[in-house]
Amino acid sequence: MRKLTPLLLFASLLIPASGALAQQAKPVPNADVITAAQLKDYLSFIASDEMEGRGTPSRGLNTASLFIATLLSRWGATPAGDDGTFYQYITLSENQVDRTKTTLTLAGQNLKYGEHFFAALGSGTGSAQVVFGGDGWLIKSKGVDPYKDVDPKGKIVIVRNSDGFNPPAGFTRNDLTGTPGQDWANPFDYAIKRGAVGLIYLVRPENLASWDGLMAGHSSDGQFMERFKSKPDSRLPSFYVKPSVAEAIFSGEQTSSGEIFKAFAANRPVPSFELSLSKKLAFNLEFTSVRSMVRNVVAKFEGSDPVLRNEYVAFGAHYDHLGLAATPVNGDSVYNGADDDGSGTTALIAMAEALSKAKVKPRRSTLFVWHCGEERGLWGSHYFTTYPTIPLKQIVTQLNIDMIGRSKAADDDKPADKELSGPNEIYVIGSGMMSTELRAISERVNENYLKLQFNYRYDDPKDPNRFFFRSDHYNYAARGVPIIFYFDGVHEDYHQLTDEVSKIDFNKMQLVARTVYTTMWDISNRDKRVIIDKKLPY
Asked: pTM of the full predicted structure?
């Protein structure tokens, strides 16, 4: 059990064991339904091992969404997803290499997929002569041009194994000055610019141990939301080959594969050269599309005012996390995501339950959206704000909760917990970025209610963490909806297998959830919607 610090003692005085609010608080209808015990029950399910980390997509994520939708149905919420359901469906697609149809032939000899080579990007069929392009990088400021003396147009280029981000040995990213694509370019982009029809990466002998991992990592172009991208990359077919294939390719040429690998190991450049006409390569690279379905969970409670009920105050949280680890640590392979963002997910569930039991509803309607795929790049909120089931112009404010369950103890001196907020503290981001009035409302509600310590440090446009861009509220703000983002700060278990329910401060969760819930009531009951008087400073 963690030491009871002075701040936590103060919080515990505000939240008695029964869950009832202290006498000095002025709660809105049913705020006291939101309790630490209730939050713990819901989070213990959402962040359990059985949810398998709630990856997007996954069985665990679907189970979590079914759990949320079942509760909403029991509580009488109105479905606000697709076709009268609680779900907004998002089709994911992934273009995977078709290993049975993808071939690579050297001088008429077929190579075996997985044993000799694997495919990376692109799709298409071709046959061409081969040119060796060294490191493949263009760096004009340093006089580096691999194709100064050879022409790769219409040919297949061979370069050393490169990730496309790190310049060759002897250079840094500070050397990449000027306009990308003109003054500098990585091997892939420069080969395209110079008219190559294919690209071969040499896997060095010392990297063979990671061959399987490399092949798995390049077996597809990654999952994407189908409505935002519909075709596989068809720019430049690319392949990785083993050293044994490199030996055959460079056999009898002016520089052998052994000499090339030795030069790479010693960080010495190797000049480009054209290979003999007998070293012709032919290829066929094909993809097959694999589809899957994920879903946002969307519900609403209709407002009590016959006119204002056409406007909404929106709650948001992401219910996905990182899924399962490839390599277990101490027998644990589940990214439980209790704080990130099981805490926000659970807070929304608790607020929906509280609202469902309120005899009088807020004047405006209340929208709840549990977003999927936040960890994949804000997918769910991007999809919802692009294809909203409720017109965005009718959403007056969006309140986003992403991590509200951790507290820094007074004696915690861990560097990783340096920015973690205290038991009665929460980072509030974006409340005044678009609306002076919204921040004033937020502060007044807090001052008249539970008096949390609001920390605004991450509102600074120069803050290097850029948290304003890193959660679902951003997609709403970018489309003109004023937002408030509640966040407890990064801690030692952020995106780790150790982000588990046992480390959650449920008293703090109760404090924050009740404050956010009460803020919704204040915004919802105002005669006029929140005034937007600022442009985003980003």
From this structure: 0.79
For residues 50 and 63, give the distance between their C-alpha atoms in angstroms, rounded to a whole number: 9
Q: Tokens at residue 48, please?
A: 């359990």
Structure tokens given for 203: 């896997």
Omega before residue 27 within 30° of 0, cis:
no
CA angle 121, 377, 398 (to 5 degrees): 155
Question: Taking a C-beta distance cutoff of 8 angstroms, is the pair 15, 510 a contact?
Answer: yes
Distance CA(308)–CA(24), nearest Å, equals 31
Q: Where are the alpha helices (DSSP H) in 157-256?
A: 187-193, 211-217, 243-250
Task: Tell me which residue of 106, 76, 112 sits closest to 300, measured CA to CA.
Answer: 76
Q: Give the three-class secondary structure for 131.
A: strand
* Phi, then psi, of 238 in degrees rounded to 5: -130, 145
- Cβ contact 397:485 at 8 Å: no
> What contacts 424, CB < 8 A, 6 or more positions away?
7, 8, 10, 11, 451, 452, 453, 508, 511
Measured distance CA(50)–CA(331) in Å, rounded: 15
Note the pLDDT of residue 492.
97
Q: Is 461 exposed, middle or buried (0-12, 13-18, 19+ CB in 10 A)?
A: exposed
How many CA within 13 A on the CB side of residue 279? 21
Q: At residue 263, what are phi and psi to the nearest 5 degrees? A: -65, -40
* Domains in the chain: ranges and CATH: 6-95+291-524 (3.40.630.10), 99-285 (3.50.30.30)
Cis peptide before 98 (omega within 30 of 0): no
Residue 23: its pLDDT value, please?
A: 35
- The type of residue at 102 is T
For residues 500 and 439, the answer to whether their CB atoms sit within 8 Å is no
Closest CA to 420 of 503, 342, 336: 503
CA distances from 72 to 51, 84, 92, 349, 351 (A): 19, 13, 25, 8, 11
Convert the pLDDT of each residue in 70-91 to its tens digit: 999 999 999 999 999 999 999 9
Q: Which helix (H) or strand (E) holds 164?
A: none
| Strands of the 273-274 sheet, one edge to the other | 117-119, 238-241, 198-202, 156-160, 130-132, 273-274
Positions of the chain with pLDDT lower than 50, given as ranges: 1-25
Q: Are 504 and 510 in contact (CB under 8 A)?
A: no
The H or E element containing residue 158 is: strand 156-160
